[in-house]
Amino acid sequence: MPKPGQPRFNHIAMSVPADLLGEEGRRDIVSFYSEVFGWNELPTETIDRQRLILSAYTFDQFVFLIADDEPMRAPRLDHFGLGVGSMEELDAFYQRALDYRAKDERVSIIDKKTEQHPALSLTSFYVGYLLPLMVEVQYFAFDAAPSSS
Hints:
Blueprint: E1 11-16, H1 23-37, E2 40-41, E3 51-56, E4 58-67, E5 79-84, H2 87-103, E6 108-117, E7 120-128, E8 134-142
Parallel strand pairs: 1-4, 5-8
Antiparallel strand pairs: 2-3, 3-4, 6-7, 7-8
């Protein structure tokens, strides 16, 4: 739970076509996001062709999908970010996304890259699957502070 004075993001909500929240679409969404990210459906909250909620690691962190006659449309690079604590963790997500794409061509991946910033190396990749927003997975590697000798 957030500490007082330190609010945090706790969910992302997207509207999608009702057909995507039918049995087959939900199965595909849950399979991908579970296999690649470890997110799980909250089945007590699912309403066929209306709503799907994916728990993302904790009860109060989730992706909320709701059917709408005018669903969200977004350019390919519109996304939300997922920060990881190590390069190994980022590489594991990246490999699982690549593996899933090998069996389902609907997976869209923007390859891993590293950007150099002052005192920071930022490595990330993007992956999208069926939803209007991609997920950008990021690892922040802060350079060690210079020694004062």
